[in-house]
Amino acid sequence: MKYLSPLEMMYRWEVEKADMVYLSQPIDGVSHNWTYKETMNEVRKMASYIKSLNLERNSKIAILSKNCAHWIMTDLAIMMSGHVSVPLYPNLSAETLNKILLHSETQLLFVGKLDGFGKMKSGIPERMSCITYPFYSEDYPKWNELTKDINPIEENIVREDQELATIIYTSGTTGDPKGVMHKFFNFSFSTTNAVQALPLKEESFFSYLPLCHIAERLLVEMGSIYTGGKVYFAESLDTFSSNLAEASPSVFLGVPRIWTKFQQGILSKLPQNKLNILLSIPLVSFLIKKKIQKGLGLSKANNIFTGAAPTPAALIKWFERLGITIQEAYAMTENTCYSHVSFKNKIKIGSVGQALPYCEVKLSERNEILIKHDALMDGYYKEEGQTNETIKNGWLHTGDEGEIDENGFLTITGRVKDIFKTSKGKYVAPSPIEMKLSANKNIEQVCVVGNGMPQPIALITLSEIGLSKQKEDLIKSLEKILKIVNTNLDAHERLQNIVVLNEEWNIENKLLTPTMKIKRNSIEKKYQEYYSTWFDSSNKIIT
Question: Hey, what CATH class is 6-230 in?
Fold first, then answer.
């Protein structure tokens, strides 16, 4: 089957939807809009400028920016000018930035909307050419000045299906980022089939998760391109809630931590006991649900997804009571974000849904999830050995452990590599235990550890609700969840105690990835010296 490329889709909307707003971005509280025609005019001019640089065809061009309209324009301009995009996380350290730029052999760098660029700047090689964006300009030649007198490319350039489109460096939960190579066909295959399967039609999207990550890139950038939709952007963390409420997208993707924050925000205004009473009164229940949905910005959302990390079933059920149906999804950079999704009319809470069309799935002898379809990565850039370890006989070895029921619903039971062995010689999978603990609303983040110890222990950080509790009440609540969880675990899995840590795990202290997954290895290194002391404590809850 012949699939249309992202550029071909944009050429279509450039004519058919010329005056429809495609990109809408708040800047200093004022919305700036670009129609499809205006977007493509900017893309055609920048592509023309890039071509004037006479770079060797398929040169690597990197994007270092938070989400904004010019991020998507840049990606399209790189495609049109005949090159390969290298999207970068906007909060990289100077050292990691330098490693990726050198490893990818980047020839040109776009520097856009950033916080704390000064700390990253030393990672950019001295002789590297850079271009900066309007509105968020650094000390480099500006986009609008470079394109001011440039004649836009008039030809509708089409890239070949098998040409390399992008190198996406993974967020690195375990070691240095690896460059995942994807050709244009992979974008076309994955987006076309996902859009048809869900189905999505002329949708509106809200962009706030990093566009350099495969999930946001496929769902928001490619999803909008393949549905002829509209993209709204968040201006900042402070304006996130108001931006989302104003956008009211029809499609929304939230990672588990976002759903926890939403829950905490609702409960801070409407305690659980009061909410329970209001939801038990028919007419009042309807009004409360509508008010909460509108306040969150989800009143028009037809597809609401969660992914990137496991979402506690209790949290999904909690939102379900509010009329917010959360669809779990599962995929990874290496399979172009095309694997499993919970279809809105076929949800099994606790599973990540069923395989998308043309996607084969099976389990290895170790219950590792193996995926096969036509849009698997071409490999890791310059890493043939790691590529061969990950794709064997056409099957992508995900590293995730799972179960598949008779209806094809996939449940993630942990990471194959995360499983650790206690000093008793027993293996423990931490993820399912962490999910059970996450049902307690006082807990924000949790990491179960215990390699080489007689029994596992749980390291946690507190949510805003937990931080507001009296110490005595907090300990009672944590003792209760510990007892409940341990009751349902095998003897070798039972937690010795729960350790409450004062320091939040975040992206800045490198204990979370940019997509807000915990960096288990980093957490282990940071706290390992205290494990014995905590384990030997007579307290079940250590604060």
Answer: alpha beta
